[in-house]
Design goal:
The protein has about 240 residues and is of the alpha+beta class. It folds into two domains: about 1-75, Nucleic acid-binding proteins (OB fold (Dihydrolipoamide Acetyltransferase, E2P)); about 80-155 and about 155-245, Up-down Bundle (de novo design (two linked rop proteins)), CATH 1.20.1440. The chain has helices spanning about 80, 85-100, 110-125, 130-145, 190-200, 215-230, 235-245, and strands at about 1-15, 20-25, 30-35, 55-65, 65-75, 165, 170-175, 185-190. The strands form two sheets. The chain has a five-stranded mixed beta barrel. A hairpin with a 5-residue loop joins β1 (about 1-15) and β2 (about 20-25). α2 (about 85-100) packs parallel to α4 (about 130-145) and α4 (about 130-145) packs parallel to α6 (about 215-230). The radius of gyration is 20 Å and the shape is elongated. About 40% of the residues are buried. The mean pLDDT is about 95. The structure holds zinc ion (ZN).
Length: about 240
């Protein structure tokens, strides 16, 4: 059986002299693993289409539970990312997060749109890198079942306070007057508003907000801490990214 779908390569592993096993975030089949046969059998222009960060139209052959890509037509290779180590490592981090969080075989169209939009903005230098990273982390967590409780203070329900506190362990928000967990992190109202915007807005609006430099830094910090607390693991690509910034 043959299937045609578009998708983004989010992982690649060399499996033989010329063969590779790639992980693809597809529009129609969620996350799948597929073999790419050697350069002899796949046209050379299909090579970049099946490398990490290649967004392409794939022709996939399915036999029992094995998928093989036999044709790939590149749609976008995000060239602007590959010329810069920090951007490349950040894009690799986004791919690693999808491998960790996206469900296999389930509908991932919204996750695909999120990562394609983020990579486009990253490749074209459209927004601060801090902002792209925070939006991607928080929105991906929200789409995969880890949306934090941001509606108001967990105890009294207060919607906005000059200073609020977010607890990454319980993913709950607290006002300045109520009792809160000792490790809850202090946030300005601007950062709380940005978090709500990222997690709750329509997909096409999630990048449309501004914050001061210090606010953006605080947003990036809380987003990363929440992601690490939620997924409970380390990311090599994140450590690599930090070594370049
Ligand atoms: Zn309260």
């Amino acid at each position: 059986m043959r299937l045609n779908t578009d998708g983004l390569i989010i992982r690649e592993v060399q499996t033989g002299e010329a063969d590779r096993l790639v992980t693809v975030l597809t529009r129609d089949m969620g996350v799948i693993k597929a073999f790419v046969r050697g350069a002899r059998s796949i046209k050379s222009r299909s090579l970049s289409a099946t490398q990490l960060l290649g967004y392409s139209r794939f022709s996939i052959y399915m036999s029992r539970d094995t998928y093989t890509i036999d044709e790939a037509e590149p749609i976008e290779v995000f060239f602007g990312i590959r010329s810069d180590f920090a951007r490349t490592s950040l894009a690799m981090y986004f791919c690693e997060l999808i491998c960790e969080l996206a469900p296999e075989g389930a509908d991932c169209a919204e996750i695909l749109s999120l990562v394609l939009n983020t990579l486009y903005l990253l490749a074209n230098n459209r927004l601060p890198v801090h902002q792209l990273k925070a939006v991607f982390e928080m929105r991906l967590l929200s789409l995969t079942g880890y949306m934090p409780a941001l509606v108001g203070c967990e105890v009294c329900g207060k919607y906005a306070d000059d200073t609020m506190f977010f607890d990454t362990e319980s993913s709950q928000l607290f006002c300045s007057e109520c009792k809160r967990p000792v490790h809850a992190i202090e946030l300005t109202v601007g950062v709380v508003t940005a978090l709500r915007h990222i997690c709750l807005s329509d997909p096409q609006k999630i990048f449309s907000f501004t914050l001061s430099n210090s606010g953006m830094k605080a947003l990036a910090d809380i987003s990363e801490r929440y992601l690490l607390a939620t997924t409970q693991r380390r990311y090599k690509s994140l450590e690599l990214y930090k070594s370049f910034t």
